[in-house]
Amino acid sequence: MSEPPVSRGPAASDAGLTRSLLTGWGRTAATAARVLRPSTVEQVRDALQMVRAGGPAPSRGVAVRGLGRSYGDAAQSAGGTVVDLTGLDAVRDLQVREGDALLTCAAGASLHDLLRLLVPQGWFVPVTPGTRYVTVGGAIAADVHGKNHHRDGSFASHVESLSLLDGRGEAHLIGPQSDPEAFWATAGGMGLTGVIVEATLRLLPVQSSWMLVDTERAANLDDLLDRLSSRDHLYRYSVAWIDCLATGRSAGRGVITRGEHAPADALHGRATARAWAVPSGPLVSLPGPLPAGLLNRASVAAFNEAWFRKAPRHRAGELQPFPRFFHPLDGVGDWNAVYGRRGFLQYQFVVPIQREDTLREVLARLRGARVPSFLAVLKRFGPADPGPLSFPRPGWTLALDIPAGLPGLAGLLDECDLLVAEAGGAVYLAKDSRMRPELLSMMYPRLEEWKGTRDRLDPDRIFRTDLSRRLNL
Amino acid sequence: MIDALGAPQSVLVLGGTSEIATAVLDRFSAQRLRRVVLAGRDPAALQVIAQRFRSNGVAAVAVETFDAADTDTHESLLDRVWAGGDIDVALLAFGVLGDQRAAEADPGLAVDWARVNYLGGLSLGLGCARRLREQGHGVLVLLSSVAGERARRSNFVYGSAKAGLDALGQGLADALHGSGARVLVVRPGFVKDRMTRGLPIPPLSTTPAQVAEVVTAAIASGRGTVWAPPALRWVMLVLRHVPRALFRRLPI
Question: Which residue in A has a C-alpha nearest to residue B33's C-alpha?
Answer without folding.
Answer: A436
